[in-house]
Amino acid sequence: MLEFLVDNVALVLVAAGLALMVVEAMSPGAYFIVIGVALAGAGLIGLLIPGGLDILVLAGLTLLIGFAATWVYREFDFYGGKGKAQTSDSKTLAGATGYVTETVTPRGGEVKLDSGGFAPFYSARSTGDTIEEGSEVIVLDPGGGNVLTVEDMNAIESDEIDRALAREAAGSDGDDEDAARNDASDAEVETERSE
Questions:
Q1: Residues 26-70 pLDDT 10s
Q2: Is residue 17 a contact partner of residue 37, using CB atoms and an 8 Å limit?
Q3: What is the pLDDT of residues 133-165, one digit of tens each?
Q4: 19: Cβ–Cβ under 8 A, 6 or more apart, which residues?
Q5: What are phi and psi of 160, to 5 degrees?
Q6: Which residue(s) pair with 147 in the sheet?
Q7: Which run of H or E residues covers position 166?
Q8: What gap in Å lies between CA 158 and CA 162, rounded to an integer?
């Protein structure tokens, strides 16, 4: 049996490489793909050269192809994570936005975050009201990453800057009304201060 393996090292390398690539296909994450490509590549070269290659030459080819496969994997970013900041802890989820995939109540639900990483689905709960499926949400409290506390984006009150931007976007028609409203509210504030 050992003699058969030694005499057919190239075939064994191809078989091992293909087996690792099948394992990678069943559980993606780039754990076995580089090693599988290196083994299968060296084995194929060993099979294609008449008379075969020495074990040390096949080992060197495996390393060389492994380095090349690693470079290709990193350069072409097959899994889509290159250049993006990765979540290092649950605190980085605070302020992240996404949408509801399963109705969120104060007791539970599920959301998908826009920048949630490889598995962007998280258990979530609301701060009070029920948030319907499809609603856009923002993470208020990451809760250790296990259960996020979220709020409906439409329920968050706009601040003075948002109101000013809305007035500016409304154009000159709304400017007269807003100016009159602001003058009236300023007058009320001055009256309250003087009393």
A1: 876 667 888 999 999 999 998 998 877 888 999 999 999 999 988
A2: yes
A3: 998 998 888 887 678 889 888 777 666 676 677
A4: 36
A5: -60, -35
A6: 123
A7: helix 160-170
A8: 6
Concatenated DSSP letters of 26-59:
HS-SSSSHHHHHHHHHHHHHHHHSTT---HHHHH
In DSSP notation, 89-153 reads: SGGGGTT-EEEEEE-B-SS--EEEETT--SS-EEEEEESSS-B-TT-EEEEEE-GGGTEEEEEEG
Supply 134's token pair.
């499809």
C-alpha triplet 129, 111, 80: angle, nearest 5°: 155
DSSP 3-state assignment of 38?
Answer: helix
Q: Which comes out higher in pLDDT, residue 81 or 99?
A: 99
Confidence at residue 91, expressed as pLDDT on a 0 to 100 scale: 72
- Cβ count near 94 (within 10 Å): 14
Rounded CA separation 50/46 (Å): 8
Rounded to whole angstroms, what are the CA distances from 65 to 23, 37, 134?
A: 19, 8, 46
Rg of the chain over Cα atoms, rounded to whole angstroms, equals 30
Cβ-proximal residues to 143 (8 Å cutoff; 6+ apart), any chain = 90, 149
Q: Please identify which residue in the block is written with the tokens 């492994």.
A: 66
